[in-house]
Amino acid sequence: MSGEFEKELQQLTSRIRPADQASMEAARAHWKTVGKPLNSLGKLEDAVTRMAGIQRTPDVRLNKKVLVIMCADNGVVAEGVTQSGQEVTAIVAGNFTRRATSVCLMAEIAGAELFPVDIGMAVDVPEVTRPEYKVMAGTKDMLLEPAMTREQAAQAVVTGIHIAQKLAADGCSLIATGEMGIGNTTTSSAVASVLLGRSAEEVTGRGAGLSLTGLERKVDVIRQACLLHRPDPGDILDVLSKVGGLDIAGLAGVFLGGALCRIPVVIDGFISSAAALCAARMCPAALDSMIPSHCSGEPAGQMVLDALGLSPFLDCRMSLGEGSGAVAVLPLLEMGLAVYREMSTFEEIHVEQYEEFD
C-alpha cells in the first residue's frame, strides 16, 4: 500500500505536462528572422527554443536564477568507498553560506543565488538545516540493508518538488542543480548500474580520487548491494530506497517540480544526471524541462546523458559537483537569449532574409 508521500508524489507528477510545441515553433520562427546566419548559434538556439516550450511562451525570460544544492550523507561510506570522512559533508554545506566553496564564486559570476538544502546530513548545520526539508540524518549502509524506506525516498522526492514550487512562487525562472555528500558517486553509480542495465565496473569511477584498491572496493560494494537488494529498474522508488541517496531523490524531485512549475532545470554532472534519469523514468514528460550543462568525468556521465537523449554544452573534464557545471553553462544560455531577444531582425536592418534549404 502506498504511503502518504508516495500518494502525494503520484498526484503531483500526474499534473506535469510536456513542453508546449506551439511556443517552440514560434521561437524557431523568430530565430529565422534574427539578422545572422541561420542556425549559427547551434545548441544555444536549441536551448532557447527548449526554454520557450518549458515556459509555454516564445517570450522567453531568465530573471532570477537559483542553484539548489542537495546535501546528504550516505551510510555506505562505512565500507571504505571514499577518501574523505562523512564529516566533510557538513563542513562544505556550511561553507556554501560563507562564500567559501568553488561553486559560490562561480555562481556569483553567473548571477545565480545559492539555495543549499540539508535533506539528509548526518549532523545539523544551523545555517543550512531546516526541519521541513530534512528527511533523516543520513542513509543506512546499503551493503547491509536498504539505504532508506520506500516512504523516505518518496518524501525526499516530494521535498524536492516543494522546493521547486517555493522558488517558482518567489519568482525564480531557472533552477540549476547541485549536490554535496561524501559517498554519493557510489550511490549514483549503483542507481546508474540498475537503470542502465550496466555492470558496476562499467559505471563506477574513482570519485574524489580513490586509489585502484579503493576503486575495486567501491565496485565490489555496489555489485554486492545490487545483488542483495535486487532493485527493480521499473520502480524508481524501489531503486532509490535500496541503493540510492537522499540527495539524488531530492534532486529528482527538483526536476519534477521544475517541470510542474514550467521552469527550466539545468543538470549538473553525474550525480545530478542520475537524479534527472530517475525523474524522467518516473514521469517522461519531465524530460522536456531539463537542460544539460556538461559531461562529467565519471565513467557513466556520458552514458546517462545518452539515456536522457541530451547533448552537453561543455566538455571541460569537470567532476567537481556542487552544481559547478550547471552554473558554468548559465552565461552561455544568457548569451543565446540576449541574441534571441535583442538582436535586430533582417527586416529591421534592411537585409534580405536567409533562405533555409534541406
Key structural traits:
five-stranded parallel β-sheet, 358 residues, globular, 14 helices
Work out the radius of gyration. Answer: 20 Å
| Helix and strand sequence | HHHEHHEHEHHHHHEHEHH
Number of strands: 5
Which range does the strand content fall in? 5-15%
Number of helices: 14
As an assembly, this protein is single chain
Mean pLDDT across all amino acids? 95
Main beta-sheet strand count, sense and barrel state: 5 strands, parallel
Q: For the largest sheet, list the strands in their spatial order.
A: 2-1-3-4-5
Cα-to-Cα separation, first versus last residue: 54 Å
Describe this structure in words.
Strands 2-1-3-4-5 form a five-stranded parallel sheet, with helices on both faces. The model has no long low-confidence stretch (mean pLDDT 95). The chain is of the alpha/beta class and 358 residues long. It has helices spanning 4-13, 21-33, 43-55, 87-95, 102-110, 150-169, 184-196, 200-203, 212-229, 236-243, 246-261, 270-282, 301-308, 324-342; strands spanning 64-72, 112-120, 172-180, 265-266, 290-291. The radius of gyration is 20 Å and the shape is globular. The chain starts with a helix and ends in a 16-residue tail after the last helix.
